[in-house]
Amino acid sequence: MTSEERCRRCGISCHPAVRLGQLRVVIPGVHCQFLAYEPNGESRCTVYANRYEQAPWCLSAEEAGREHLLSRDCPYHEGWDDPEGKTRLHPRLLREKAPAIAKQILAEGVPRWVTAYGVENILRAAGYEVLGTRFDENGFRRYQVSDIKPVPEFPVVSIHEEPSD
Ligand code: SF4
After folding, report:
1. Of 26, 36, 98, 104, which alpha carbon lies 20 to 30 A from 19's?
2. 32 near 112, Cβ under 8 Å?
3. β-bridge mates for residue 71, sequence order
4. Hey, is 45 helix, strand or coil?
5. d(CA 32, CA 27)
6. Distance in Å, CA 149 to ligand 1 centroid
7. Which SS3 state, helix, strand or coil, does residue 63 take?
8. Mean pLDDT of 96-118
């Protein structure tokens, strides 16, 4: 079996991680702009053949593994789990942790290659209204938001919402 055949198309390596205590958590909808999902839930890189030209931020599986950027139980690890690897949260836990995740995003920004709609969804789920964004000198997208608002019915927006087009 080639290393690529071991891939289970989860797409986790194409999501940036947010630090939450000891965990590196990926957020649904917050991923590389070139990642797409098939109707069966499998992910697909839309520029795979030319990814290093079109997506200079993209790393090989070996590089990503060394930097703990694969999922904890990614088959690329060949039989061992990386406790520092990325993980998904159960949707209920993700909703509970939305304010902490939003705080982290507001403090650190997100890489410029990340889909902005997913970030805005998680910020809205935490009660923040996004007023605008800008890029800082390190190429990170930073958010200007209104003060946190009381959220009568939580979450305001589904954090799994994907754009329809
Ligand atoms: S360019 Fe790289 S990071 Fe982006 S979707 Fe393709 S494989 Fe993933």
Report:
1. 36
2. no
3. 86
4. strand
5. 12
6. 35
7. helix
8. 93
